[in-house]
Design brief:
The chain is an alpha/beta fold. The protein contains ten helices and seven strands.
Length: about 290
Amino acid sequence: MSELRLMAVHAHPDDESSKGAATMARYADQGARVMVVTLTGGERGDILNPAMDIPEVHGRMAEIRRDEMARAAEILGVEHHWLGFVDSGLPEGDPLPPLPEGCFALVPLEEPTEALVKVIREFKPHVMTTYDETGGYPHPDHIRCHQVSLAAYEAAGDHRLYPDAGPPWNVSKLYYNHGFLRERMQLLQDEFAKRGMTGPFAKWLENWDPELDVNSKRVTTRVECAKYFQQRDDALKAHATQIDPNSFFFATPMEWQQELWPTEEFELARSRVPVHLPEDDLFAGIEAD
């Protein structure tokens, strides 16, 4: 039986549910095999949901985040693989403190690259998604995720590299996620104003980094997936330590989102098959095997 396979590579558990999740749910529902590869365990993540900031959670982040990830994968209908590296944490201060010894961002690039190549050669994805060179935001693990994903994409099909990681496999296409677009937030914010309501994105838009606006110009591919927005939100809420269900993320009525902006956005970064841009399908130009 022929099948299409998609691999989404992310830095931490919960990243998969906030970046391209509805697209993954759509393809899984349509019969493709979809695998999320999470590079770190998210062990150094802060508790961002006040309701979870309780003694029973403190000191158990690694275990709890594994459970959260399993639940999110179930909701999205995807397979999941832990790569096994240790969360670097998000350094804060001026000057920034050094990263913890042995963390993912400090491990030699070849180690996670070989580990990811092994998973690629076993799963044989036709398409990979990951982050661009900025990481989406400047978390050291997100930037490293980009570097590792790009290196593994190039290496997986080269029989001379990592010969112990299995027979070579060429991934046909590599995409970058571009989920946080200013124009989308502005559109939703304007909808609140049209209805005489106060929108939730004013502060975010006011503090928006102009350099991030290049994302909208880089979009090559818009995947219609409005039907799966609720699965996306449910998966994100499954990461209960990381997201407050009462936060502004969920303030916009679902029907507005589905009507006004029914797509998720990607940038085609590499392709080994002929393409015609813009696209509306990550598998465009690819034949199932």
